[in-house]
Write a structure and sequence with these properties.
four-stranded mixed sheet, about 25% strand, mainly beta, four-stranded antiparallel sheet
Length: about 280
């Protein structure tokens, strides 16, 4: 710590009980109002030891001097009782402290903590490799407490994500699509995955799943298709039965090989569209 500067202000005058000034008088200096030990560790403004002690000037004023290291108040007695002196450089020290780069070490502490966080640049967040950006956890098992994320809309939520992994989209108007999946740019050199939407069963590699839709609109399912009315502009491939009000329970086969030669037993209404490969 440093020595503080005392005296030298208009308030630092040595006076008797009648208010008269006491010029060229030696005063005794203490660390407290009750301390019996006189302080000798005093320096003048040039840094020299004050061997004669603290003396008032010819006007009875206390000159500037340096107190002991780190002391914030002193008590002086010029034979009229002890009075307290406070440093005259408090304002300068406060300003210097406020202007310091990191006076409390809070920036250093914060920087150390932020080393474990992800930096944000503009509107984008750069994720380190193999790092999860956000993990939503909810251990509440009470009814209605399974929603871990919800974005509010007009009268109800727009989107809700639940603890069991399900998600719900709520469409408030007829001008918006509840769920839209886009491939992004398909210009030269910009390759996209073959599938836009996949429901996985036991196979996760290479976009395989029990149900998938590719970017061209083709639908492939490993189970049955049940629809009230089916209209498709692309291909629908089903390894199970296809049922719809407008086609009944008929199955449609196409290709150069008779389905019966592939071990398929025809049913009433089945159709085989033969063409050469």
């Amino acid at each position: 710590m440093a020595r503080n500067v005392f005296g030298g202000t208009a308030a630092d005058a040595a006076e008797n009980e009648s208010g008269g000034r006491l010029p060229n008088l030696k005063g005794r200096v203490y660390l407290s109002e009750e301390s019996p030990d006189e302080v000798k560790d005093l320096l003048d403004m040039a840094g020299n030891e004050m061997k004669d002690g603290l003396l008032t000037d010819e006007r009875g004023m206390i000159p500037m001097f340096q107190g002991p290291d780190g002391v914030e108040q002193l008590w002086v007695d010029f034979n009229a009782g002890r009075v307290m002196l406070i440093p005259n450089d408090v304002g300068n020290r406060l300003k210097s402290h406020a202007d310091a780069y990191d006076p409390h070490g809070s920036k250093q502490y914060t920087d150390g903590r932020l080393d474990n966080f992800i930096s944000k640049e503009g509107a984008e967040v750069s994720l380190p490799s193999n790092k999860r950006w956000l993990g939503l956890m909810n251990s509440t098992s009470t009814p209605g407490g399974d929603t871990i994320y919800q974005s509010n809309g007009g009268s109800t939520y727009n989107f809700a994500l639940r603890q069991n992994g399900s998600a719900t989209f709520y469409q408030h108007t007829n001008q918006h699509i509840p769920l839209e999946i886009r491939a992004g740019s398909k210009s030269a050199g910009a390759q996209v995955n073959a599938n836009a939407f996949v429901i996985n069963g036991n196979e996760f590699a290479n976009g395989k799943g029990s149900y998938k839709i590719d970017w061209e609109g083709n639908v492939t399912t490993g189970g049955d298709i049940n629809a009230g009315n089916m209209i498709a502009w692309g291909n629908i491939t089903a390894h199970g039965a296809v049922r719809a009000d407008n086609i009944g329970t008929a199955r449609v086969f196409s290709g150069p090989t008779d389905p019966t030669q592939m071990g398929i037993t025809p049913k009433v209404g089945d159709v085989w569209v033969k063409f050469n490969a």
